[in-house]
């Protein structure tokens, strides 16, 4: 694993997370472990069937101390809030005069997925730069691999779930094959990294 680090800017303002198969279980270990004073915004894309409603906000609201909701178009990004991409919409990060916004798009699927992880990561990297954390969890395709490298190119910090701990290792494997990352960790070690990103401390 590369030498652990925070971002060059220290604290991160937002964390983007991508997952598919096995991702709900991974998030169940990760998101409820975050404290009420956790400040970065968390934006999540899970590759789910486009034709079905998402129950993720309800499921995680009952388990997390942080507020959880489904992302809405042109919604200001709030610190310390978990936002899930809705089914059949790409989730992006945009900006207006007041600051970063959530945006939804019905552009063509990417990696056969809408929402797609790459779309979120690339747009968030363009807005947040070095104040972004990017995370790839369990999944069964290559979505997110290029997006994670976009986060790294912009100076952000990157984290991939250790493949031997992922129910579906294809997504972490693709992310690692695409280029260097900063952390490769099992789920139980990830909350400590998140907390360090939130306060700018060293790991």
Q: What labels would you give this structure?
A:
disordered N terminus, alpha/beta, 203 residues, protein-glutamate methylesterase activity, Sig_transdc_resp-reg_Me-estase, 10 strands, three-stranded antiparallel sheet, EC 3.1.1.61, hydrolase, phosphorelay response regulator activity, Rossmann fold
Describe the structure.
The chain is of the alpha/beta class and 203 residues long. The chain has one domain: Methylesterase CheB, C-terminal domain (Rossmann fold). Helices cover 27% and strands 23% of the residues. It has 6 helices and 10 strands, in the order βαβαβββββαβαβαβα. It has helices spanning 23-30, 56-61, 117-128, 145-153, 170-178, 190-199, and strands at 14-19, 41-46, 68-70, 75-76, 82-84, 90-96, 99-105, 132-136, 157-161, 183-185. The strands form 2 sheets. Strands 3-5-2-1-8-9-10 form a 7-stranded parallel sheet. Strand 1 (14-19), helix 1 and strand 2 form a beta-alpha-beta unit. Helix 4 runs parallel beside helix 5. It is globular. The two termini are 13 Å apart. The model is unreliable at 1-9 (pLDDT under 50). Its EC number is 3.1.1.61. Keywords: Hydrolase. This is protein-glutamate methylesterase. InterPro entries: CheB_C (IPR035909), Sig_transdc_resp-reg_Me-estase (IPR000673). Residues 8-201 form the CheB-type methylesterase domain.
């Amino acid at each position: 694993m590369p030498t652990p680090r925070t971002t060059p800017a220290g604290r991160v303002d937002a964390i983007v997370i991508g997952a598919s198969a096995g991702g709900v279980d991974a998030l169940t270990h990760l998101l409820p472990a975050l404290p009420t004073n956790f400040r970065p915004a968390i934006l999540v894309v899970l590759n789910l069937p486009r034709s079905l409603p998402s129950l993720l906000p309800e499921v995680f609201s009952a388990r997390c101390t942080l507020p959880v909701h489904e992302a809405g178009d042109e919604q200001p990004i709030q610190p310390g809030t978990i936002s899930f991409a809705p089914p059949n919409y790409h989730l992006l990060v945009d900006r207006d005069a007041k600051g970063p916004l959530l945006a939804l798009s019905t552009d063509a699927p990417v990696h056969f997925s809408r929402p797609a992880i790459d779309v979120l990561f690339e747009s968030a990297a363009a807005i947040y730069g070095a104040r972004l954390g990017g995370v790839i969890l369990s999944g069964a395709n290559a979505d997110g691999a290029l997006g994670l490298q976009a986060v790294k190119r912009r100076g952000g910090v990157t984290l991939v779930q250790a493949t031997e701990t992922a129910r579906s290792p294809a997504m972490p494997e693709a992310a690692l094959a695409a280029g260097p990352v900063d952390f490769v960790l099992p789920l139980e070690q990830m909350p400590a990294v998140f907390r360090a990103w939130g306060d700018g401390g060293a790991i």
